[in-house]
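User: Thanks for the earlier help. One more: Cytochrome c oxidase copper chaperone. Can you show the sequence and predicted structure together?

Assistant: Of course, both are below.
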Amino acid sequence: ISSWWSGSKPEAESCPYDPTDPKQNPLNPKGLKPCCACPETKRPRDDCFLKYDPSEAPEKCKGVVEQHLKCMRGFGFKV
């Protein structure tokens, strides 16, 4: 039995995973935010979606999207 007087925190209040915190995520030592983590794959992904019609972009851009996701996961982001 735990109460608010005991001083111990329940498990549910522990810190949630923060991929931008280098202490929690050694894959991201600079603490980059998702918007800044993979510019070398983000720009080609965005350009691809602007280049094609929305109905065909998901299929045509699949490769660049997969590269971007791989890069983001490499930084410890859960995407």
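User: Great, one quick takeaway?

Assistant: The chain has a mean pLDDT of 90.
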